[in-house]
Amino acid sequence: MIKYIPINNLSTNKYQNKIMNNTETYKKVIEKILIKAEQGIDDKAYYLPIEEFVQKFDAGAIAKSIKLKIVQDEENFTKHFLEVVMSAPNSRVDLTRPITYGNKDEILRFLKNPESLKLITEHIKQMG
């Protein structure tokens, strides 16, 4: 006989709320990566990826770390991806989700837009 666990008895990971409801941390990370992006993104030459960790977690969390990352398009170095990267806790696999794509000005405009916080937070919730 199969025994079902009632939904209301399921417990969530103790880190889930830390990850999902951390808007202030996300806001600070967006501000930090914006500063790095203004200095580091180059539409005329190749550059190393720009990263800012949202959070690193202890063992048992649903992710080892979450970070925002800006990478250059390999085929067109004048275009860039802003991505959310979540490292899986027990493997070397990273879940990567592109948030936006464009030239330097478009990426900076997105990061300065107050709506970007809501969009990034939503993507992190979906990935978790």
Oligomer: single chain
Number of domains: 1
Overall average pLDDT: 78
| Spatial shape | globular
Question: Which class best fits the helix and strand makeup?
Answer: alpha+beta
Largest sheet: 4 strands, antiparallel
The termini sit apart by 32 Å
List keywords for this structure.
about 35% helix; four-stranded antiparallel beta sheet; 4 helices; disordered N terminus
Structure, explained:
The structure is a single chain. The chain is an alpha+beta fold and 128 residues long. The protein has one domain (12-127). Helices cover 35% and strands 25% of the residues. It has helices at residues 16-20, 23-40, 104-112, 115-127, and strands at 50-56, 65-72, 80-87, 94-102. A 4-stranded antiparallel β-sheet has the order 1-2-3-4. Helix 2 runs antiparallel to helix 3 and helix 2 (23-40) crosses helix 4 (115-127). The longest helix has 18 residues, at 23-40. The protein is globular and about 40 Å long. The two termini are 32 Å apart. Mean pLDDT is 78; it is low at 1-15.
Write a compact overview of the structure shown.
The protein has 128 residues and is of the alpha+beta class. It has helices at residues 16-20, 23-40, 104-112, 115-127; strands spanning 50-56, 65-72, 80-87, 94-102.
Spell out the blueprint of helices and strands.
Elements: H1 16-20, H2 23-40, E1 50-56, E2 65-72, E3 80-87, E4 94-102, H3 104-112, H4 115-127
Antiparallel strand pairs: 1-2, 2-3, 3-4
